[in-house]
Amino acid sequence: MSVLEARELVVDIPGRQGGDPLSARILPGQRWGVLGPNGAGKTSLLHTLAGLRPPRSGTVLVDGEPLAVLRRRTLAQTLAVVFQERQDSFPATVLETVLIGRHPFLSPWQREGADDVRLAHQALDALSLSTLKDRLVSTLSGGERQRVAIATALTQQPGIWLADEPTNHLDLHHQVAVMELLHQQAEAGAGVFLCLHDLNLAARWCDHILLLYPDGELCFGPADTMLVPEALERLYDQSLSVFTVNGKPVFVPA
Ligand SMILES: Nc1ncnc2c1ncn2[C@@H]1O[C@H](COP(=O)(O)OP(=O)(O)OP(=O)(O)O)[C@@H](O)[C@H]1O
């Protein structure tokens, strides 16, 4: 189990002055959803938390250690990133790609062992990809590639998930399956941090919400305190109608 912490973190958004510093801890078992309009800085925040982009100021810590002093290998054994965009041009099969999730645990030139292959097959099964295991990733549909990316992260068995729009390209059934999978990961002790565009997926599956405004203003807290129509209407500059289904709010454009 791992803790991801942002301490007085200001993300470096080119051309943006200021921005609220973020001080928050993503604890084991928590499911965070980041909401905000296009260009608000969700991806930049996620990349900064992953150590892929230097912050303008402040620190990111994993288990109390600043990213700057953590070995990349240790970080890769702890934290998985599912990117919004990816290049799958390298000619590799689905199984070979998913096995990349085991690489942080292998020494240089070490081949994957039986346990690594078993974990990869489990992940393929969880994402309904087993029948595609020998296909070249470059031949897959957008939604199938998205599921390969999530299966690769699952094979990594991370304590912290950073996923940028993990339901991108997915049909309704697979959106629900992926959100359920992330819920199970949290129940097993992972911290989950997601950028989302779908308010209703966030309302149903996230227990913490971070609202990110285009000028860098932010606020966060338990989901039921953040998913307030007035706040969301200001966030998206869009009037909303709200219904309640199974005890959860459902938002539709008014
Ligand atoms: N390398 C860069 N150079 C210049 N501008 C950048 C760079 N990276 C990000 N930006 C700008 O920073 C802002 C935040 O981008 P980011 O991708 O983080 O937003 P987002 O909230 O994830 O948007 P979306 O919902 O469209 O995915 C955008 O205006 C973007 O154009």
UniProtKB/TrEMBL annotation:
Signal peptide: none annotated. It comes from the Bacteria. InterPro entries: AAA+_ATPase (IPR003593), ABC_transporter-like_ATP-bd (IPR003439), ABC_transporter-like_CS (IPR017871), P-loop_NTPase (IPR027417). GO terms for molecular function: ATP binding; ATP hydrolysis activity. Residues 4-239 form the ABC transporter domain. Keywords: ATP-binding, Nucleotide-binding, Translocase, Transport. Part of the ABC transporter complex HmuTUV involved in hemin import. Responsible for energy coupling to the transport system. PANTHER family: HEMIN IMPORT ATP-BINDING PROTEIN HMUV (PTHR42794:SF1). This is ABC transporter ATP-binding protein. It comes from Alcanivorax profundi.
